[in-house]
What we know:
This protein is mostly beta strands and 65 residues long. 9% of the residues lie in helices and 55% in strands. The protein is built from one helix and five strands. It has one helix at residues 56-61; strands at residues 6-16, 20-25, 30-35, 39-44, 49-55. The two termini are 18 Å apart.
Amino acid sequence: MSDPDTFEMACQFLRESDTAVLVLDPASGEELWIPFSQTEAMHRNPDHTGKIVMTRWIARKKGLC
């Protein structure tokens, strides 16, 4: 059962700063900065693809849900 307070998205990991990760949303082609403070988990594959689990609040703010 998924947590109603989180949002999971398949993505490509592009880069990181000290406070956030830049991901590419393959559905829209949009690059999005997700703050680490709003990130619950990141599952990365060797090819830089994977999934990011973020708070539903930041997903709504970024227009993902």
